[in-house]
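Action item from last week, closing it out:
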Amino acid sequence: MSATDTPQSIIARTRQWIETVVIGMNLCPFAKRELRRGTVRFIVSPESDMESVLLQLIDECTHLDVDDGTQTTLLILPEGFADFDDYLDLVGLAEELLADRGYEGVYQVASFHPDYRFADADADDPANYTNRSPYPMLHLLREDGLEAAIASHPDPDSIPENNIAKARAFGTDYWLKLMDELHATDIPTS
């Protein structure tokens, strides 16, 4: 996080990424509805160590337990998780913690990172951009909401394949430029 970043500007940039990439390119056919309904909770974590972030993740589970008006939480991590391998360690621990706390099958963690790389992909494969975001984040989703959304889609199994094909059709140069533009753009925070 730079000195000019504030929680409000980080949320605004993340929201712009969702609007431009996730919704604008239809990478997630379910995101638009939730964003428009205002059921997406954006939390910017000031924490930079795994233990503190994991405690915050459990706090977000507790929030979801009592707030039916929130469908999903984006726990944005501008500090401490720039290294993708460290971030992957965090994701693994987050999944274990959810299981240990009885949240397996209730909530699911999806992962997004500026340097996201699928295990079987080259670093410069444009397909990686389907999970590349302005900041590292843990996306906490309600399993029941996800299952209902998937059930309403005519061909949910095609979503990942279509996203990979779409990302590769645009090419790495396109994605690099787009992500640079998202970081360079002055984003209104109100």
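Closing note: The CA atoms of residues 25 and 166 lie 9 Å apart.
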